[in-house]
Write a structure and sequence with these properties.
alpha/beta; TIM Barrel; two-stranded antiparallel ribbon; about 45% helix
Amino acid sequence: MSVAPNKRELMLGLLQPGFVPPYVPAAFFLHFPPEFHRGRAAVDKHLEFFRSTGMDLVKIQFEMPWPDLGISDARQWADVQPLGMDFYRPMLEVVEGLVREAGSEAVVVLTLYSPYMIAAHLVRDGRLDSDLQEAPEAVARGLLRIADDVLEFVRACKEVGLDGFYHSTQGGEENRFADRRLFEQVIRPADLRVMREIEGLFRFNILHVCDYHRAKVGGYESMEPFLEYPGHVLSCSPHIGGRELPLVSLHEQFRRPVLGGLDRLGVLASGTEEQVRAEARRVLEGAFPGLILGADCTVPADTPWSNLAAAIDEAHRRTF
């Protein structure tokens, strides 16, 4: 009699050609309150969430408070100073703790923001986009400096046994910049500097094309700009170019597993468990080997865990 794979073996198996999982895996992510951002409290809360919901991987939320660089002139981006490992060390301790506690039973990944997203956190007045348009060469240089800085942290995560990253990228939304060349010439090179090194070091990376600010800057006209982005799994909203694409279409386009299917702001966040189950079953009607049921992005922090557990349970009932 064959033995069903544990969650770790299941998720790694999805990356193998021709692998058919015994059920549809599932995973959802949310932010925890500040008291669970560091140390043992962070490790315990992530483990509680993982085990209470029954999800199929452990994703560590990146919850470090970012310093303010005090940039007052766009040209200052060219000389951005590294944050260094002293800044990242508390996060590394959480990574090490969760790899130790859960690494034998599940794949463990960490949210990693793109250099552009990190840069946006390092200024308090939302000036990054205007600076980028005013002095694109200076900002491009700054983003590459940020990329090199975060790669030091990435290599430290490799040393403590992390399986990979949930690498999030923004900047290519349809209404972010009038001149699309700014994404291609400024943001994309820094993205790829980080992602290509991650691809060579880790075995399970999720490329997340993030539309968290969709209400402000729109979604994405096309996924074409991201086809060459590394990542073993794709995560993005299916609302692309003014229409909703079937997840299987994204799976075929990117030739990799796809994480998603449910709207983070829909019934998951505010519906009843039965409504969540009904919506999950609807999505799962189109299930295919290579689907990981999830949301299009991080769900609101007050989302009932019972709703997430209900959606995951429906996924686990769906077999091939």
